Amino acid sequence: MGVDRSTRAPLHQQVADTLRQEILGHDIAPGDALPSEAALCERFGVARSVVRQAVAGLAADGLVTRRQGRPTIVAPPTEYRRLVQRATGMFEQFARRGHALRTTVRELVPADPPTEVREFLGTADALRLERVRLVDEEPLSYVRTWLPTERVPGLAADDLTDASLHRLLSRVYGLRPMRGARRVHAVAADDKLAAELRVDPGGPLLLLEGGTTDQNDRPLEWFSAWHRADRVAFDIDVSDTMETRLGSPAGTVSEPEAQGAASAPRGSGGSGAPGGPDLDRADLGPAELNRARTLLAELQRILG
């Protein structure tokens, strides 16, 4: 069966969607090789560049593994991958990859936020939402989210059981999460997190946290999400854009380009909050520029 050229859907997307369905439906089992590029070209009636783009999309979603000089294979579903620099939440990212993500709400109560959260939200009148996210009944993350009370009137815990918070905010309140800075830390599980995530106390967790603004650039949420390090991997896209702009006479780094930086220290040039000013080279001294370049080089080395 070929592609439908009468629709507006890009050819590579149609090829990728068909292969994705076959992978998620186990027509192509984990560990099996995808058909060769030539075979896929013949099957779908498309050019080799279209097939390569489709397979690249599957690889970005963590569904296949590409290796130099060897066949592309279907990735085993033992490790779940999350793209750090997307504003979309865990529910949306996992749904795209065919994982049925369940959500158990532990608590939704008015509470006094910590100083950093209060400063980001611009108010002390907040709700604290605590949830456990599971796949195949196995807990993957524990998420604490702070929301400005006045922006989500009538929000109830039952609304969020096995549901996406971001989807609900958009559908019910007209609030679309758009952008925000993210930090990643390696932390040890305390007794509560260990019990919720079924790991040993003191075991390694990956903490992803940050604030998100809406379509009008107003503070919408602050979240902290603790992930099991043995089940979840963070993907970070790295390019030389940041380095090139830092080295140019009038270079700046805008927030969307800087979102992939993990745990950028305060004082290294970032605004420290979503919606802050762009990073202008004129505001940085030699030490800060060197530090930024060092961080970028280290990320590139770690991520290959």
Output the keywords.
alpha+beta, Arc Repressor Mutant, subunit A, Chorismate lyase, six-stranded antiparallel beta sheet, 10 helices
Q: Strand share of the residues?
A: 25-35%
Overall, the morphology is globular
Please give the oligomerization state of what you see. single chain
- Report the strand count: 12
CATH class of the largest domain: Alpha Beta
Helix fraction?
25-40%
Report the end-to-end length measured between terminal Cα atoms.
37 Å
Count of alpha and pi helical runs = 10
Mean of the pLDDT scores?
A: 78
CATH topology of the largest domain: Chorismate lyase
Provide the structure class.
Answer: alpha+beta
Largest sheet data: 6 strands, antiparallel
Describe the structure.
The chain has 10 helices and 12 strands. It is globular. Helices cover 30% and strands 26% of the residues. Helix 1 crosses helix 3 and helix 2 packs across helix 3. The protein has a 6-stranded antiparallel β-sheet with strand order 4-5-6-9-8-7. Strands 1-2 form a two-stranded antiparallel sheet. Strands 3-10 form a two-stranded parallel sheet. The protein has 3 domains: 64 residues, Orthogonal Bundle (Arc Repressor Mutant, subunit A); 156 residues, 3-Layer(aba) Sandwich (Chorismate lyase), CATH 3.40.1410.10; 62 residues, no CATH class. With 304 residues, the chain is α+β, with helices and mostly antiparallel strands.
